[in-house]
Design goal:
Blueprint lengths: L1 E7 L6 E5 L4 E4 L5 H10 L9 E3 L5 H4 L2 H7 L3 E5 L3 H5 L7 E4 L3 E3 L2 E7 L8 E7 L2 E6 L7 H7 L4 E5 L4 H6 L4 H8 L7 H10 L7 E5 L8 H13 L10 E4 L9 E3 L1
Parallel strand pairs: 3-4, 4-5, 5-6, 10-11, 11-12, 12-13
Antiparallel strand pairs: 1-2, 1-14, 2-3, 7-8, 8-9, 9-10
Length: about 260
């Protein structure tokens, strides 16, 4: 059994609570310590209950709360090996373990997927407990068969749907920033996420959480409709064959339970 609670997701901060009956994991610790502990308390979890924090990469929206968290609670931190030193510099009393392959935290197995992102190293993760499998991949700029294959055997996936390309191109960001976001080392657009969903036709995936939406270059409605239409083009009907949620930047409102 796995329960998944996206606490907050977006360009400002990211953190997802993943728990089995025995183990409690935080995937990323973005935003602020107060935002994170408040969101956790809404789910009945105190910082001391968290067994491990798993970090995807070193950008501030994924590790912003880490210094203050580890000052208060010495939770074990797992980080991709190439950013182990960077993460170690930001934690107080916590132990840091370098990830360079599959590993295990309590009764949850963890596998990695190497994202294409302008960080030193960025991992997506798959969490397995018994027959329950959940993957989260954000902060990646490429749609590949390897990405679809990583997600294929999960009942639920959390997948980046960062921006609407037209909104981004017409928006006020600098040319340089637009180029960064649109590049193969940037973020997945709604259209790219739609491509991934089409590749997942016939897979185990029955629940999708769209994540890491840009507040300036996307809306929940546009991202949702893009994903729904992609599924529909494959004969997969949202609400019947698949359920699609959109994670919020501030509100902790989606909860998944995989048996
Ligand atoms: Zn990033
Ligand atoms: Zn990010």
């Amino acid at each position: 059994m796995l329960k998944i609670f996206p606490l907050f997701s977006g360009s400002k901060g990211n953190s997802t609570l993943i728990r089995s009956e025995q183990t409690v994991i935080l995937l990323d610790a973005g935003f602020t310590y107060h935002a994170l502990t408040n969101a956790l308390s809404e789910r009945g979890v105190a910082p001391k209950d968290v067994n491990a924090i798993v970090i995807s990469h070193e950008h501030a929206d994924h590790i912003g709360a880490l210094p203050m968290w580890t000052k208060h609670t010495p939770t074990h931190v797992y980080a991709p090996a190439p950013i182990e030193d960077v993460v170690r510099q930001r934690v107080y009393s916590s132990q840091v373990s370098a990830i360079d392959g599959s590993f295990r935290i309590g009764d949850i197995g963890v596998e990695t997927f190497e994202c294409s992102h302008d960080a030193t190293c960025c991992f997506g993760y798959k969490f397995t407990c018994g027959a329950s499998k959940f993957a989260c991949v954000t902060d990646t700029g490429c749609v590949t068969d390897a990405l679809a294959d990583f997600l294929r055997d999960c009942q639920a996936v959390m997948l980046e749907s960062n921006h609407d390309e037209d909104m981004l191109k017409r928006g006020e960001y600098s040319y340089r920033l637009k180029r960064r976001i649109l590049s193969p080392c940037g973020h997945l657009s709604n259209a790219q996420t739609a491509e991934v969903l089409k590749k997942l036709k016939g897979s185990c995936v029955k629940t999708v959480v769209l994540a890491h939406l840009s507040e300036n270059n996307n809306t929940k409605e546009i991202a949702f409709n893009s994903a729904v239409n992609a599924c529909l083009s494959c004969g997969v009907v949202e609400g019947r064959d698949i359920v699609i949620y959109v994670a919020d930047q501030y509100k902790n409102e989606v909860s998944l339970c995989l048996d």
